[in-house]
Every structure is written in C-alpha cells, then in structure tokens.
Amino acid sequence: MDNLYLFAVVSAALSAVITPLVRKYAIKLQIVDIPKDNRRVHNKPIPLLGGMAIYISFMVTLFLKLGRLTNSEIGLILGSTVIVIGGFLDDKFNIKPWCKLLFQLAATLILIVYGIKIVLITNPFSGLYQFVNLGIMSIPLTLIWVIGITNALNLIDGLDGLAAGIALISSITIFIIAVLNGRNEAAILTIILAGATAGFLPYNFNPASIFMGDTGAQLLGFLLAAISIEGAVKSAAAFSIAVPILALGIPIYDTLFAMVRRKINGKPIMQADRGHLHHRLLDMGLTQKQAVMIMYIISAVLGSFSIVAMEINAQRSYFLLIIVMIILILIAWKAGFFKHRE
C-alpha cells in the first residue's frame, strides 16, 4: 500500500513540474483556445495541451514501477498514445469529428487486442448463472463503453478544473473499489492517474493558466473507461455494470441528457449547446468556482454509491443504480435540462 501512495506522489510531482513546460510549448506552437462563442466562459486566450503533462507523468511513473509491464498495461500505453496523437491534432488543427472517432476506435481496438474488454457481466436476475458471458458481443460493448466515456469526459470539459477534478474523483473512487476487490493492477493504474491529474489541477483550476484540451479530456476519459473494466469487477472477473456507471456518473448522465435534449428539440445529436449542467449552474448566477465545487460534490456522492454497489450483491447494485437514475432524471426534468438553449 505504501508503494501505491509513492506512485501517486511521483506522478503528481512530475505533472506539477511538466505542466509549466507544456504551457510554454503550447504557446510557442500557437495551440491556444481563443474564445469565439457564448459557450466559452473564459474571456482571454488560454494555451491548450495540458493533457500532455498528464500523459507524460502517467507513462513515466508506470515505467518506473517495479516488474515487467503486463499485457494489459502495454495495451493501455499503446491505446493512450493513439488517443493523445488524435487529441493533439484536434487541439492544433481542429480536426473533423469523424477523424477523432477513428483515433478513438483504433485506440479501443488496441485495448481489445491486448485483452482489455468486457467479457462477463454480473447477472441482475437471480437464477442458475451468476454471470453472463457476452461472447462476441463483448467487442461492440467494449467499443461503446470506452468511446462513450472518452467523449463524455470531453463534453464536460467546459469550466476551469471541471473535467480534471471529476477525473480525479473518479480515479480515487475506482482506486478504492480496486483495493477493496483485490485488483492490484487497476489500483496501481488509478493511483498513478490520480497523481498525474492532481499535479495538473492547480494550473487548471479557476483562473486557469492552461487547459487540458482534447489531448487531456479524451485521455482521461479513455484511461478511466479502460481501467474501470479491470477494476470494476467482482469474482471471476465479471464486470459489474452499476459500479462504473455510478463512479463516472457526472460525464455519463450529462452526455445522455444532452443527447435526449437535442433529440426532443429536433437538434443534431452532435450540435453543441448551452444546456450542460455547468452552463445551467452558471445561468443560475453561480461563479465558476461554485459551479465546479457543486459538480465535485455530486461526483463524490455518486462515487460513494458506486463503492456501496461493489459491496452489495448484483441485484441490489442494479436496484441502487436504477433508483439513482430515476432521481437524476426527475431532477433534470424539473430543472428544465431537456429544454434547448443556444
């Protein structure tokens, strides 16, 4: 356990040192976010590429750990590298959505080739079989899960420190779940990721001096999705669906609500709007810091539910997930989250 905390310290220290260097590099390459529309809440150009500091810190710390890299870790390294390349190109050249999707698809297929995929899920119904073997369906389900979470975290990256803080809370949540479940590899990966994110966060919190950009938001979403497959499991390596859906609740629900909102209002699913949770909180008169702290608290509460879901049986964990989803949908409906806002 002491070694785990050492990984976090090393990763955080590296990230804290590398981030200012990446900031200078981003300015030199003119990879800067210039506010052009009313969805952006900053009023001056801010350098991007902060995700590169998280990536470098995560990779260096992973290579420093004792022992050979496992097959899963190799897949994670290769997949993350593909994601970072795609994110870098998007931050620099603003590539088309289908191009980003190709990088995400390639990165996820690498995970699958190296054995990171959802093979078994816990059976929510009592009966003869405790687990359900997905067979060939494990490939499309893994693709949907990883690509979905990758984009979900990218979509909530709208306020200073928001995506990084949510990712940090989610990393700590999955770390606790992995430790409780004896998943040592997932525990190492999440504590390293938590450290890399924590070292970057002071530079990204309001007022931010650097943004993580698509490079960082996609990377964090990709890593959390991949590691949760390894960490959110019970006996026989069965994927407990309720656990990661709760642990990664904020980006998942905000994205689902956005899709439903745009469908109801006859808007393209991919069309950006000001209907996300952080926009709503700002429209209520909250400051950036206040809005971000509220979302941190919600994320932490959902994370605590995910830990509970891991400790109870499959039927109760699914029941808990359904109750939480119903409550969130009712709150979203009452708060007007499904009404379109430009």
Automatic annotation (TrEMBL):
<keyword id="KW-1003">Cell membrane</keyword>
<feature type="transmembrane region" description="Helical">
    <location>
        <begin position="291"/>
        <end position="312"/>
    </location>
</feature>
<dbReference type="GO" id="GO:0016740">
    <property type="term" value="F:transferase activity"/>
</dbReference>
<dbReference type="InterPro" id="IPR018480">
    <property type="entry name" value="PNAcMuramoyl-5peptid_Trfase_CS"/>
</dbReference>
<keyword id="KW-0812">Transmembrane</keyword>
<feature type="transmembrane region" description="Helical">
    <location>
        <begin position="101"/>
        <end position="122"/>
    </location>
</feature>
<feature type="transmembrane region" description="Helical">
    <location>
        <begin position="72"/>
        <end position="89"/>
    </location>
</feature>
<feature type="transmembrane region" description="Helical">
    <location>
        <begin position="235"/>
        <end position="260"/>
    </location>
</feature>
<keyword id="KW-0808">Transferase</keyword>
<feature type="transmembrane region" description="Helical">
    <location>
        <begin position="128"/>
        <end position="149"/>
    </location>
</feature>
<feature type="transmembrane region" description="Helical">
    <location>
        <begin position="6"/>
        <end position="26"/>
    </location>
</feature>
<keyword id="KW-0472">Membrane</keyword>
<feature type="transmembrane region" description="Helical">
    <location>
        <begin position="186"/>
        <end position="203"/>
    </location>
</feature>
<keyword id="KW-1133">Transmembrane helix</keyword>
<protein>
    <submittedName>
        <fullName>Undecaprenyl/decaprenyl-phosphate alpha-N-acetylglucosaminyl 1-phosphate transferase</fullName>
    </submittedName>
</protein>
<feature type="transmembrane region" description="Helical">
    <location>
        <begin position="318"/>
        <end position="337"/>
    </location>
</feature>
<feature type="transmembrane region" description="Helical">
    <location>
        <begin position="210"/>
        <end position="229"/>
    </location>
</feature>
<dbReference type="InterPro" id="IPR000715">
    <property type="entry name" value="Glycosyl_transferase_4"/>
</dbReference>
<dbReference type="Pfam" id="PF00953">
    <property type="entry name" value="Glycos_transf_4"/>
</dbReference>
<feature type="transmembrane region" description="Helical">
    <location>
        <begin position="46"/>
        <end position="66"/>
    </location>
</feature>
<feature type="transmembrane region" description="Helical">
    <location>
        <begin position="161"/>
        <end position="180"/>
    </location>
</feature>
